[in-house]
Design goal:
single chain, 389 residues, alpha/beta, Rossmann fold, 3 domains, 7-stranded parallel beta sheet, 11 strands, 41% helix, 16% strand
Length: 389
């Protein structure tokens, strides 16, 4: 029997990769729902290709346009992400949550209610709202699969392991495009160079975060929450080739590594075929060249000042994570728009995270999703009033 699948954010990078895997394995899967914000051309192409009966378009103008176009079509067009449960009325096998940003948090929680297995590729939702996701997972007895390559690797390595046996977890970082450049040469470097990640093809926002190493700070917070670990047990190590994705050091002296090519299709395909006796990934060649040159490097704080933020991350839930993400999003946009230089991105982040207006919230925690949205609005309102260095 085919697995019934929903892809939330099917026109983004992760969503498209998930769709392409299913397209090549139609005998095993049936897509019942696809969603997008504005990319109507792509979602229509996807729906027609695999005869998907339900599509959801969040943008009201785009929805109205397509609704009219598909008036006599068998494809049902929906608009409101808050009504997911009215579209998917029976529990399905698997949902991929790949809607970017905090706008993906509520749909993720709603999707848990109708999914036997839920794969989450939304960093912001896990960082800011894990307590709500975890509660929904337990209540609905839904299996959770982290899709980020590092967290999928840790999740795989920790199967059947007691967390008390873990001495340390290392998250690997590529070091981005400026790893081997002098600081003086990148102070005023243009965004187009920061976007050239050496190993991965990613969106603009995450590419900048990778260059500053901010992406890895977020991944540490994710790992802390997902695996319920003390923050001191999670470290960052630079591995330029991005072939090794996680290292787990156990108290018994054993060390486990997990490696795979820089292709997100690998964790996604493994999550789709979870509980299958076997399946074959297309590219099964072992990259011995990468294994022979692992080259692990301790991050340089002068090059990556955001490393200092690790000392501010606490084990308890608070508004800190939401404020951190909001400040970083704001500054990355400013850098991409040419309003601040590359070094200012780091300097302003480290300065703003310490100001009293924000620190007063670090001992408080959100009670619901609405509280998180209110905090994001507060942060953006404040940031839009100040002058950046």
């Amino acid at each position: 029997m085919k697995k019934k699948i929903a892809i939330l954010g099917s026109t983004g990078s992760i969503g498209k990769t998930t769709f392409d895997i299913i397209k090549k394995n139609k005998k095993d899967f049936e897509i019942i729902l696809l969603t997008t914000n504005k990319n109507t051309n792509k979602i229509l192409q996807q729906a027609k290709l695999l005869k998907v009966k339900n599509i959801l378009i969040s943008s009201q103008p785009h929805y109205l346009k397509i609704k009219k176009k598909l008036k006599n079509s068998k494809i049902k067009v929906h608009n409101n992400l808050d009504n997911l449960q009215n579209i998917v009325k029976r529990k399905i096998d698997y949902t991929m949550c790949a809607i970017s940003g905090l706008s993906g948090l509520k749909p993720t929680i709603d999707a848990i209610k109708f999914s036997k297995n839920i794969a989450i590729a939304n960093k912001e939702s896990i960082i800011c709202g894990w307590q709500f996701i975890d509660k929904a997972l337990r209540k609905n007895k839904t299996n959770f699969i982290p899709i980020d390559s590092e967290h999928f690797s840790i999740w795989t390595l920790l199967k059947n392991q007691n967390k008390n046996n873990i001495k340390r977890i290392y998250l690997t970082a590529s070091g981005g495009p400026f790893l081997n450049k002098k600081n003086s040469s990148i102070e005023n470097i243009k965004p187009k160079y920061a976007l050239k990640h050496p190993n991965w093809k990613m969106g603009k926002k995450i590419s900048i975060d990778s260059a500053t190493l901010m992406n890895k700070i977020f991944e540490v917070i994710e790992a802390k929450k997902i695996f319920d670990l003390d923050i001191t047990k999670i470290k960052i190590i630079i591995h330029p080739r991005s072939y090794m994705h996680a290292i787990v050091h156990f108290n018994n002296g054993l060390v486990k590594f997990l490696a795979h090519d820089t292709n997100m299709a690998i964790p996604i395909m493994n999550s789709l075929y979870m509980n299958y006796k076997s399946f074959i990934y297309n590219n099964d060649k072992l990259n011995f060249e990468a294994l022979n040159g692992l080259n692990f490097i301790k991050p340089d704080v002068k090059k990556f000042p955001v490393i200092k933020l690790l000392n501010r991350i606490k084990n308890k839930y608070s508004y800190f994570e939401t404020i951190l993400i909001s400040i970083n999003d704001f500054l990355v946009d400013k850098y991409l728009n040419g309003e601040i230089n590359y070094f200012s991105l780091n300097i302003n982040l480290m300065k703003l995270i310490k100001i009293p207006y924000f620190t007063r919230y670090y001992k408080l925690k959100p009670k619901n999703i609405i509280d998180i949205k209110i905090m994001v609005k507060k942060v953006n309102t404040y940031l839009n009033k100040i002058k950046l260095n």
